[in-house]
Amino acid sequence: MSRPDRGPSILRFAAPQNFYPLAGRLAPWFAGAAALLTLAGLWLSFFVAPTDATQGEVYRVIFIHVPAAWMSMFVYLVMAFWSAVGLVMNTRLSFLMSQALAPTGAMFCVVALWTGALWGKPTWGTYWVWDARLTSQALLLFLYLGFIALTRAIEDPRRADRAGAIIALVGAVNVPVIYFSVKWWNTLHQGASVSLTKAPSMATTMLAGMLVMAVAAWAYTLAVVLWRVRSMILERERHTEWVGAELMREALRQGGRA
Amino acid sequence: MLSAFFAVLRRDLLLAWRGRADVLVTLAFFVIVVCLFPFGVGAEANLLRTIAPGVLWVAALLACLLSLHRLFAQDHADGTLEQLLLSSEPAVLWVTAKVLAFWLTTGLPVVVVAPVLGMLLDLEQGAYPALVISLVLGTPILALLGAVGAALTLGLRGGGMLLALLVLPLFVPVLIFGAGAVEAELSGTGATAHLLLLGGGLAGALALAPWACVAALRVSTE
Amino acid sequence: MQWESWSAFWNMGGAGFFVWGSYGLTFALVALELVLVFQRRKDTVNRLLRWRKAVGRNGSGVGAGKESPGESRAIP
Lengths: 258, 222, 76
Hints:
The complex is a heterotrimer of chains A (258), B (222) and C (76). Chain A has 258 residues and is mainly alpha-helical. Chain A contains seven helices and no strands. Chain A has one domain.
């Protein structure tokens, strides 16, 4: 099962037993960075960024709304990337990465939809409009849910990996099609009653707050995905010696149960 | 090479002919779904006329979705699928043949019946060509995309709901342009742009979906 | 500093419900995800430890009647 080390090359970390400790070492740093950046971002969002001239205070939702929407799309792309890598290079770790990313991507999708609704109510007077962006965001959430449901419905891990990878790639090809079709449909049906695209000229501090929160979301995603993938690696590699050793170490750490 | 294509096509059509009841069930489903709408939204002619394109398209989409599981299930159960995958014939060809046979036995009947149902909903006369052409171009896309989902969920417990969750988001663009074509015809802007986009979508789906479908079948049967 | 008082801060110019509703759910979801991820880690380790005990001491005894430790199907 385990592959021999291939020297100091970066490919070494494609082997689960090498990646596992690396992920364990890196994740706390990303988590710490995420916490610090979130604090800095919140401070910028609430105490530095000025009140918006047209929207008042409610615009402060964008400091999580926009980063969450960015992340939800970006995470899907990364998922599709790892799926493609897995299918082409036949690396088990890539499939695990794409499956570890999915719940976090779906979480950001929910956050983007929820904050969008709460922002929409005072701004447009309704929680939901069939706006191109909101609608595509909802469809993206369904793509995530489909991926998660499919990979969980299949018992055989090998089949689950590959089937998930295929549907992730099919979805990734379709995301732009979906977005443009929804946009086209939206302009035909709704006219220009609601325009999210015309961003009001944004103060630099507002932009800074948004960017810091976006970087925080990145760091958070990295941390939580690395933690999650560690559990998945243990599960998948449970037949190997190194997982046995790792489990023994973990048992000792927990206070000598085993 | 094409002989494999036609052999599979002929076989699937023959099987469909022997199991005519399945095709009729799909059609009956299509008709019933459309007939439910007046009960739900009220029988006011103006309202029905407005929602007719969308209703017909959604019903066609659901009819296609519900018959998708038939596409590979039988062949999977009796081992034909594995034999086909092991054969030296290019898999993309016979997968395309199977999807074509599927469309001929479910999509085409829906296309034929749709204008009749359009009359029930008092769809305006001028919209019928757009309705038929949009369905002719759109339902094959549904079959092609659906085939990938059907291949991925092959033999899974609860595969039906899973299949719906997987493919419905992918169906949305087809629905938008399909129903949009009819509405554009009604509103006087003309359906050409929609139909061209549907045609482009069909070409794209025809070029990509069979490959994805073959990959999915290999994953699901190994 | 642009807030006259804490109550003005919480009020958010009348949009307190929408702003704090957004931030509240976001951080609740983040916290939930973190809890679930650590829970999953603990579950996996404990389950695999039990499983290895069942299949044999050194852990290489795969296939000794119990191939799978029982899949965890929790979302995280």
